[in-house]
Protein: Globin domain-containing protein
Amino acid sequence: MSKILSAETKAIIKSTAPALQMHGVAITTRMYERLFENAEVKALFDQAAQESGEQPRRLAAAILAYAQNIDKLENLTGAVSRMVARHVETGVRREHYPYVAEALLPAIRDVLGEAATDEVLAAWGEAYWALAELLISMEEAEYLETT
Ligand code: HEM
Structure:
């Protein structure tokens, strides 16, 4: 992983796994509502997968798997490769990642309410960018190869 997360951050992330299991789809559904206020970002997504609820479910599962495996990321190698492949197919770029961060963190707050303390949101902000940096670097390597 490109950025090292502290043991404390990892412990906070792991402690949020049960809440994510319960509310993951609600969080990602809310996240997409926020994200799609941006028309350029919305156009990247296959709307059929959105409407069937498929895409929020995939993203919720990915976030939950990340929380559960935050200290054994080698378990996520296959899942990360699939995300990278899908992102490259749909033209996701580095500059899109802040939009997802800005939609995801408030969505966690919207759904978890007071349970999403400042500490929890700060830990998720750090963890999001650690994963994002990994995806971005793998995606940039793929774009270089294919263009
Ligand atoms: C850390 C951040 C992110 C994670 C964890 C993530 C995760 C995922 C996952 C799990 C999938 C489904 C892969 C599959 O089909 O098996 C996916 C697909 C996709 N992601 Fe991401 N993603 C992230 C960031 C982004 C960003 C920044 C964008 C662009 C704004 C984006 C746009 C897409 C699109 C367009 C698809 C294909 C969806 C479709 O089939 O319609 N993702 N992502």
Notes: Residues 41, 44-46, 49, 55, 58-59, 62, 82-83, 86-87, 90, 92, 96-97, 99-100, 128, 131-132, 135 surround protoporphyrin IX containing FE (CB under 6 Å).
